[in-house]
Specification:
alpha/beta; 2 domains; about 10% strand
Length: about 230
Amino acid sequence: MDETRQEPAVIFDLDGTLVDSVYQHVMAWRRPLAEIELPFSVWQIHRRIGMSGDLLVDAVSREVGKPLSGAESQRARDLHDKYFADSMDTVSPLPGALPLIKQLRQADAKWTIATSGRAADAEPMLDMLGLGLDDVPLLTSADVERAKPHPQLLLAALERLGANPENTFMIGDSIWDMIAAARCGALGIGLLSGGYGPEELERAGALRVYDDAADMLYHLDEIAPRTRD
């Protein structure tokens, strides 16, 4: 067996995990959904942040009971992208994100970022984290047919890292991250920095739950040796 494939690896979500951008996404979705006459409260939108954009629009359409045309669905996604880009100046790294990344880089660890968002949104956030596209093998929704909660994005990240799922930690803030981790066999670590509660994350499969990246970094020794067994 190839021993290098047994090295622990880390896959990070981005929004709500490393950068404080969840509520900007919520408000960026609220306006286009209203414009295509899908009345949805802010708290209801928040429950779906972490899904890919097409899944979110489909879920809202189904719950409201109003089928959308392909053009309406695309318009909602395009408007979200515009409104979110307009709010980028209010986005910043979450506590502990920069020190955690620094420690992983110093340790020469296997790690990557896998986000259900777009590369156009992710790239300025990488810059906030002091990273470039040459520093981390970024995966976005454009790299797969189905983003989270489908495991395809994480499986692509595992392939790129040359890692086994049972030795990989998925660090995320949403239940969709934890579901995707469980579906591909990775170990989910939940962070509260995206607004989900600890019980929700644990029910979705989180092995451990921490306040944010800073709290996880402080308790890193609790995570490293653990497995589902």
